[in-house]
Each structure stands twice: as structure tokens, then as C-alpha cells.
């Protein structure tokens, strides 16, 4: 269920169906989900996967939010387990 929710959530951001304050809240939810260590607990893992599914949908818009990208690439377990993704995001803002 969180897979579908994550994809839908990410598509809302990608297709610019949320804006302004709502966009900020949506991006914050994704960031908070990504900050959950996937191996900490089953609930934490589900939230992390939600964040990853959402992020995958709006990756092409990340260049619009360089500060957001800097927060993403600072997440330790993301740097360790998803080095390619982190490299892509760093490449977007450089």
C-alpha cells in the first residue's frame, strides 16, 4: 500500500499538482521518510520505501530545489546503500 501511495505522492509533485505551502509540506514528508533507517524496524523500512518510491517519481524536478537536494545527500544510510542515487542528485545541483 505504501508503494502505491509513494508513487502517487511523487507524481503529484512531479506533475505540479501541489504548489506553494502544500508543496513544501509534501517535500518535507518525503525527506522525513527518507531519513528513516530502513533496517531499524519494519515500520521504518516501510516509510523509507515510501520516500524512495515518491522520490523516484519527481527526480527530474530536483534541480528546482538545490537546498532540498543537499538535505537528501546528507542522509547517511542513503549515501551508504544508494551511492548511485546520491551521485545523481549531487550531479543535478553541481
What can you see in these coordinates?
The chain has 6 helices and no strands. The radius of gyration is 12 Å and the shape is globular. The chain is mostly helical. The chain starts with a helix and ends with a helix. It is 74% helix and 0% strand.
Topology summary:
Layout lengths: L1 H13 L5 H15 L7 H17 L7 H8 L2 H6 L1 H11 L1
Helix pairs in contact: 1-3, 2-3, 4-6
Write a short abstract of this structure.
The protein is an all-alpha fold and 94 residues long. It contains six helices and no strands.
> Between the first and last Cα atoms, what is the distance in angstroms?
35 Å
Q: Give the overall shape, derived from the CA principal axes.
A: globular
Radius of gyration, rounded? 12 Å
Q: Using DSSP, what is the number of strands?
A: 0
Average residue-wise pLDDT:
95
Q: With helices defined by DSSP (H or I, 4 residues minimum), what is the helix count?
A: 6
Beta-strand residue fraction: under 5%
H/E element sequence:
HHHHHH
**What level of helicity do the residues show?**
over 70%
- Helix and strand content put the structural class at mainly alpha
Ranges where pLDDT stays below 50 over 5 or more residues in a row are none
- Largest sheet, if any? none
